[in-house]
Amino acid sequence: MATRRSKDDIRWSAVVGKDRRADGQFFYSVRTTGVFCRPSCPARRARRENVAFHLTCDAAEAAGFRACKRCRPREASQSERDAALVARACSFIETAEAPPRLAELAAAAELSPFHFHRVFKAITGLTPKGYADAHRADRIRKTLPASKTITGAIYDAGFNSNGRFYASSNQVLGMTPRRYRAGGERLQIRFAIGECSLGSILVAATDKGVCAILMGSDPHLLIRQLQDRFAKAELIGGDASFEKLVAQVIGFVEQPRLGLDLPLDVRGTAFQQRVWKALRRIGVGKTASYGEIAARIGRPTSIRAVAQACGANMIAVAIPCHRVIRTDGHLSGYRWGVQRKQALLEREQRS
């Protein structure tokens, strides 16, 4: 029940702030006027005790309310139109042989380059160039292991020159192309295991940052999971200084108010990275639904894919997939167990 009450508090905050980002995620009705509205409705704010929330227009009408004539909740909102526009732009970027220019994308959207750039970044969390770079990085990760030559894979992924790719290869792949093609061979990963009230925690890091935080009941199983994820890497037990990092993670699990700000070595597809970036924006003690995350990254229909990206997350608590719940307020699944998810949320809400 605490999670559901918290959800309504978040919705009410969106209504008070007339937050366009919440449009399409829910609707609210006002008992004294008999109408229902979208969160960004410009009408005068109703009293909280007269307001109820509905997930769909049909649900609001079934409860006896009629659509507001000011915000027209049955029509596409500006946020929804922007999300559809950005989704088309993302698709264009993904299918283009070379990254399209900003002016070309803006012209296709019938917006000025400045306005298109602002809308795109607000929805995806990335600039159009950043999104194109992330997509090319995803393509190079997929093509490099099976390609006959490194050069061929580089050009197939949309990079126009070897030099440009090699200059950014560590950022794109986390290592040199040759090492990545060999499956991460000779990559060194330090790790250590600690214990907390939720069981064992394994923290692993490359020289770029934390690449895994795993939780479970069996420390040996956590090590095997790390080995499976980085099959050809050299695993090295962390020293005393590294164990301080583990203590920092455990400290956050036990007392979330301490916060957790770690350098991360995040490896995933362009879509996964967009989801994980959105998860890191959910504050301590807050939650969001899978549908809300899908809307925030400009893919409102990709709810199942968002759930899969949450399930693929290897960096527990630092990328807080435990803060994503179902629309009805239930917790749903969690890679490290629903009981741990519930415990994490309860601690964060208390703090």
Could you estimate the helical fraction of the residues in percent? 40-55%
Number of E strands: 10
Uncertain stretches: 160-172
Distance between the termini: 17 Å
The fraction of residues assigned to DSSP E strands is 5-15%
Given the structure, what is the number of helices?
A: 15
The global form is flat
Round the Cα radius of gyration to an integer and report it: 23 Å
What is the H/E string? HEEEHEHHHHHHHEEEHEHHEHHEH
Mean pLDDT: 81
List the helices and strands and how they pair.
Elements: H1 2-16, E1 27-30, E2 35-37, E3 51-54, H2 57-62, E4 66-67, H3 78-95, H4 102-109, H5 113-124, H6 128-143, H7 150-156, H8 162-173, H9 177-181, E5 188-196, E6 199-205, E7 210-216, H10 219-229, E8 234-237, H11 240-254, H12 270-279, E9 288-289, H13 290-296, H14 303-312, E10 324-325, H15 338-350
Parallel strand pairs: 2-4, 5-8, 9-10
Antiparallel strand pairs: 1-2, 1-3, 5-6, 6-7
Helix pairs in contact: 4-5, 12-14, 13-14
Short summary:
This protein has 15 helices and ten strands. By secondary structure, it is an alpha/beta fold.
